[in-house]
Amino acid sequence: MADTTLWAELLAFGTGLALSPIHLGVLLLLLLGPKPIQRGSWFVTGWIVTTLVTVILLLTVGHSLVLDMTQGSHHRTALDLLGGGALISLGLKELLRSFAAGEEQPAWTHTIERFINLPLPLLIAVGALTELISPDDLFLFAKTSAVVLAASLPSWQEIVGLVFFTFGSSLLLLIPLVAVIIGRERVIPLLQSGKQILFAKGDLIVGGVSFALGAYLGWQGISGLTIVI
């Protein structure tokens, strides 16, 4: 049976993936615009499907290549060190940009305001592509697959783990969507406040999450090196 450490890691990686200011910002704008439930539901569905399919493909490739992802293995140590270094660099860059910008909104906020005017199928496709090309997301996908491979779980537990990760990565999108479905008029002020905070502090969120994840991966990579030595 998988231990609680594995589930905690999957939840942590899923939460890291969920803290995507671009996708959260797009969803909030959709929920504040016309046809909020229809457009918001399709957008969140696209996120969930993209997340689940990506980790399934990575896990399938890992099994077919018989990759050793135990602590201290060359594959896992390299992934942790490379991922940790890249994420720490990205995190520092975003944090410095956030402090330099002050009260000015990040440039990506103007981009997503144009995104929501796209036809819904194209908007979902752009959302999926953005998720797949984000450095943070790529390493989180790879790390999730790595820890599941290292656990050597039976197939049904692997499925449960991937569903658990996907749910964790979607929770921040599902909460506002469900709130709008239950009673949109009552939550509109909260959505507007959330959008203002997200647009003002988006770079700070990205930088903080990237730095924290990078530090964690770096620590695991260094631990792997000590095992090898």
TrEMBL record:
The chain crosses the membrane at residues 6-32, 44-66, 159-183, 204-222. InterPro entries: Gap/Sap. It comes from Prochlorococcus marinus (strain MIT 9303). Pfam families: SfLAP. Keywords: Membrane, Transmembrane, Transmembrane helix. This is Possible Cytochrome C biogenesis protein transmembrane region protein. It comes from the Bacteria. The keyword Protein biosynthesis does not apply.
